[in-house]
Write a structure and sequence with these properties.
It is built from 16 helices and 23 strands. The protein is α+β, with helices and mostly antiparallel strands. The protein folds into 2 domains: about 270 residues, BirA Bifunctional Protein, domain 2 (2-Layer Sandwich), CATH 3.30.930; about 90 residues, 3-Layer(aba) Sandwich (Rossmann fold). The strands form 7 sheets. A 7-stranded mixed sheet has the order 3-9-10-16-13-12-11, sandwiched between helices. Strands 20-19-21-22-23 form a 5-stranded mixed sheet, sandwiched between helices. Helix 13 links the parallel strand 19 and strand 20. Helix 5 runs antiparallel to helix 6 and helix 6 packs antiparallel against helix 7. It starts with 8 loop residues before the first helix and ends in a 9-residue tail after the last helix. Bound molecules: glycyl-adenosine-5'-phosphate.
Length: about 500
C-alpha cells in the first residue's frame, strides 16, 4: 500500500541530505550523473557507522561466520553460471512520441498507485489483477504490453499512448578487459556481491576449517543499469550491498531461514528504526531456484519498499558453479560420512536503502513553544558526530579547556567543535546533523570543572564533571531509547 500522507517529506529529506553534507548527486558540477550519488562529510560517517555495525553483528557475534572482500571484476563465466547473462533483465517499453524508455512493470505499478490515490479502487484492483497475471505468464513481455494498451496507460513524459512492444533488457554493465580492443574480453561489473562468495566457498571453508552450518559475509559495491533512475538513493546504478550466504545441510534450510528473518529484522530495530514501520513481505512468485523468499520492507514517505531480501536459494548457485567450473563444490560431513552440495540461506541488504531508511525514520519537524526545529533522532551509534563541543564565549582560557575536552573525547567518539554564533543556533545545526549530545563549556567550567550536556531528543541539560564526561556519555549511549515529540 502506497503511503501518500506526506508527499513533500521525501523532498525535505533529500534537501537536508544535500544541505548538511550527507548525500549529493555524483558529478554535480557537470550537471550530475543520474542515479549515482556521493556521500559527503556527514554521510560518509553515517555510512561507516552503519556498515561497521552490520560487520560486527554478522562476523564478530557469530563465530561461524567468516568475512570476505572479493573483487568487483570476476571471470565472465561466473555470470553465465549464475544466470545473470540470460535472465538478469527488465521488461522495457519505449514511448514512440518522446523516445523515452520505461520499465513496463514500473509504469503499471505507478498507474495502480495513482488510481488508488484518486480512490478509483475498482479500476486499481482490476489493473493489479491483470498485472499479477502478466508477471506470472510465460510470455510476460507480450502480456505486459497488452495490459498497458488495454488499460490505456499514458507515457509520463508526453502523455502519448503510442508504445513500442515490450522487450527484455540486461541490467549488467559491461566493460572490456585487455589493452587491445579487438582482443579484449567483455566482462561485467558485478550486479550483486553474492557470486564472489559462492566462487570462494571452497577457499574460505578450507582456510577457516568451518563446519556446516557456517556463513560468509561480504559488503561492497554492486552495479545495475537501472532504467527507472529516481527516488534518490533508493534506486541507484552504483550502490552497496551487505550480504551473507549461510551454508546449511539440505533439509535444514527452513530453520535457518526463519532464524535469519528474525535476526535481520531485529538488526534494523537495534539501529533505532521504529518496528511498526517495518514488515515482512513474502515473495508471491518465487525464483525457479528458491524455496522461500521474503523482503523486509520499510514504510518510506514514498510507500512500503524493500530494504533487504532473505532468500532460501537451495543448492542452485553452488551446483551451477560446480558445473561451469568443473570444480567440486561439495561438503563432506565427517560425522555422518555424507557428501552433499550445501543449501544456502542468503540475507541481502542495501547499504544506501538502509541509510535512507534511518534518515527517514529519524527526521522530525518538532513544534516547540515559539519555534520549529528540524531534528534527526539518529541512534547515537549511527550519528556522524556523537558529541559537539561548544565553548560559550571566547573568554580567556575557555577555548583551551574546550579543545582539551574535545581531544580527550576524540580518542573514543567522533566530535565536532564550534565556537561561533549564538548557542541556540549551534544546537539547531547539531539537531539537523543528528548529533545526540552537545557539551557546553562556560564560566562555571573554569571554576568547578563541570560542563553542561544537552541531550538532543529531550533537550534536557545536565551538569557533569568534565573528568567523568566520557563514561557519562558512554552510559547514555548504551541506555539510549529513541524518543519523538509524538511519543512524549
Ligand atoms: N544477492 C541477492 C540480491 O542481490 P536483490 O533483492 O536484487 O538481491 C538486495 O538486492 C538488496 O540490494 C535490495 O534489498 C536493496 O536493498 C539493494 N538494492 C538492489 N538494487 C538496488 C539499487 N538499484 N539501488 C540501491 N539498492 C539496491
Amino acid at each position: 500500500m502506497e503511503n501518500m500522507a506526506a508527499p513533500d517529506l521525501f523532498e525535505k529529506i533529500v534537501s537536508l541530505c544535500k544541505r548538511r553534507g550527507f548525500i549529493v548527486q555524483s558529478s554535480e558540477i557537470y550537471g550530475g550523473l543520474p542515479a549515482t550519488y556521493d556521500y559527503g562529510p556527514l554521510g560518509v560517517e553515517l555510512k561507516r557507522n552503519l556498515t561497521t555495525r552490520w560487520w560486527h553483528a554478522m562476523t564478530r557475534r557469530h563465530p561461524n561466520i567468516e568475512g570476505l572482500d572479493a573483487a568487483i571484476l570476476m571471470h565472465p563465466t561466473v555470470w553465465k553460471a549464475s544466470g545473470h547473462v540470460d535472465a538478469f533483465k527488465d521488461p522495457l517499453i519505449d514511448d514512440k512520441a518522446s523516445k523515452m524508455r520505461y520499465r513496463a512493470d514500473t509504469l503499471i505499478e505507478d498507474q495502480i498507485a495513482r488510481l488508488r490515490k484518486k480512490k478509483k479502487t475498482q479500476k486499481a484492483d482490476a489493473l493489479a489483477e491483470a498485472y499479477a497475471a502478466a508477471m506470472n505468464a510465460e510470455n510476460m513481455c507480450d502480456e505486459l504490453y497488452k495490459v498497458i494498451v488495454e488499460h490505456e496507460i499514458k507515457s509520463p513524459d508526453s502523455g502519448s499512448k503510442d508504445w513500442t512492444e515490450v522487450r527484455q533488457f540486461n541490467m549488467m554493465f559491461s566493460t572490456r578487459l585487455g589493452a587491445v580492443d579487438k582482443d579484449a574480453t567483455e566482462i561485467y561489473l558485478r550486479p550483486e556481491t553474492a557470486q564472489g562468495i559462492f566462487v570462494n566457498f571452497n577457499y574460505v571453508r578450507d582456510v577457516s576449517r568451518q563446519a556446516i552450518p557456517f556463513g560468509i559475509a561480504q559488503m561492497g559495491k554492486a552495479f545495475r543499469n537501472e532504467i527507472v533512475a529516481r527516488q534518490f538513493v533508493f534506486r541507484m546504478r552504483e550502490f552497496e550491498q551487505m550480504e551473507l550466504q549461510y551454508f546449511v545441510k539440505p533439509g535444514t534450510q527452513m530453520e535457518a531461514y526463519e532464524e535469519w528473518k528474525e535476526k535481520r529484522l531485529q538488526w534494523h530495530c537495534d539501529n533505532g528504526v521504529r518496528p511498526e514501520r517495518l514488515r515482512f513481505a513474502d515473495h508471491v512468485k518465487l525464483a525457479h531456484y528458491a524455496d522461500a523468499a521474503v523482503d523486509i520492507e520499510y514504510d518510506f514517505p514514498i510507500g512500503w519498499k524493500e530494504i533487504e531480501g532473505i532468500h532460501s536459494r537451495t543448492d542452485y548457485d553452488l551446483s551451477a558453479h560446480q558445473e561451469h567450473s568443473g570444480k567440486k563444490l561439495e561438503y563432506f560431513d565427517t560425522q555422518t560420512k555424507e557428501r552433499f552440495i550445501p543449501y544456502v540461506v542468503e540475507t541481502s541488504a542495501g547499504v544506501d536503502r538502509s541509510i535512507l531508511m534511518v534518515l527517514c525514520d529519524a527526521y522530525e519537524e518538532e513544534k516547540l513553544e515559539n519555534d520549529t526545529r528540524v531534528v534527526l533522532h539518529l541512534h547515537p551509534k549511527l550519528a556522524p558526530y556523537t558529541a559537539a563541543i561548544f565553548p560559550l564565549v571566547k573568554k580567556e582560557g575557555m577555548p583551551e579547556v574546550a579543545h582539551a575536552i574535545e581531544a580527550d573525547l576524540r580518542e573514543d567518539l567522533n566530535c565536532f567543535y564550534d565556537e561561533k554564533g549564538a548557542v541556540g543556533r549551534r544546537y539547531r545545526r547539531m539537531d539537523e546533523a543528528g548529533t545526540p549530545y552537545c557539551v557546553t563549556i562556560d564560566g562555571q567550567t573554569l571554576e568547578d570543572g563541570t560542563v553542561t550536556v544537552r541531550e538532543r531528543d529531550s533537550m534536557n541539560q545536565e551538569r557533569v564533571s568534565k573528568d567523568k564526561l566520557l563514561p557519562y556519555l558512554q552510559d547514555q549511549i548504551r541506555a539510549y531509547k529513541p524518543s519523538f515529540s509524538a511519543d512524549k
